[in-house]
Amino acid sequence: MTTAIVTGGGSGIGLAITEKFVQHNIRTIIIGRDLSKLQAAQEKLGALCIPVAADLSDLGAIPALVNKITAQYGPVQVLVNNAGINLKKLFTDVTDDDFQRILTTNVTAVFALSREMVKHMRTLGGGAIINISSMAAQYGIPKVIAYTASKSAIEGMTKAMAVELSPEGIRVNCIAPGFIATDMSAKALNDDPERKQKVMSRTPMGVLGTPADIGDAALFLAGNGAKYITGVVLPVDGGNSVGF
């Protein structure tokens, strides 16, 4: 049986990826800070969904976390780096600590977890890593400087990782979600009609995506149908990144 890890798997896009994986008989370990949220996901999705509470911004604890998971659950073939945090603030109001906090969770923790998982995947002869980026890395969006920096880093890391790790059978790809209808985004857009109109007008398909759309893309990139695909940044965005 294939086993996967999905960070931030308790809600939103992470939960949708986990749901797709579980539907296709992939045992999925979800990592997040909020145990009750993770347990609610397990209740919804069943025994193939395994909650593990951990704070990935505690970088020093990541090697032990990976050792614990692999000792308890055996080989892990797929890693989805989905966990991330955002901060909406005017450029000049963002403090050094604000900026560093976003980078620690969205970039350094992704690097550290991937590094430890690669050591493990090497012993299996291969694996698949899927990073989650954002439209913020495709073009400039105001008031999210730290988030934009972090997601641009993720796309660059994806390419560097793919070139270095693919010879060992470890494929590394990235999904760049467009505007996806989650509880959080729906509220943000409904509160800001001008922004909603802007999003819709530059999305050729004219609708918001669903979390399941990202789940489908992750399932494809994790599976054998994508065995010759590595180093790509796949926009799942209804054409938003090319919209005019």
TrEMBL record:
<dbReference type="InterPro" id="IPR002347">
    <property type="entry name" value="SDR_fam"/>
</dbReference>
<dbReference type="InterPro" id="IPR036291">
    <property type="entry name" value="NAD(P)-bd_dom_sf"/>
</dbReference>
<protein>
    <submittedName>
        <fullName>SDR family oxidoreductase</fullName>
    </submittedName>
</protein>
<dbReference type="InterPro" id="IPR057326">
    <property type="entry name" value="KR_dom"/>
</dbReference>
<comment type="similarity">
    <text>Belongs to the short-chain dehydrogenases/reductases (SDR) family.</text>
</comment>
<keyword id="KW-0560">Oxidoreductase</keyword>
<dbReference type="Pfam" id="PF13561">
    <property type="entry name" value="adh_short_C2"/>
</dbReference>
<feature type="domain" description="Ketoreductase">
    <location>
        <begin position="2"/>
        <end position="178"/>
    </location>
</feature>
<dbReference type="GO" id="GO:0016491">
    <property type="term" value="F:oxidoreductase activity"/>
</dbReference>
<dbReference type="InterPro" id="IPR020904">
    <property type="entry name" value="Sc_DH/Rdtase_CS"/>
</dbReference>
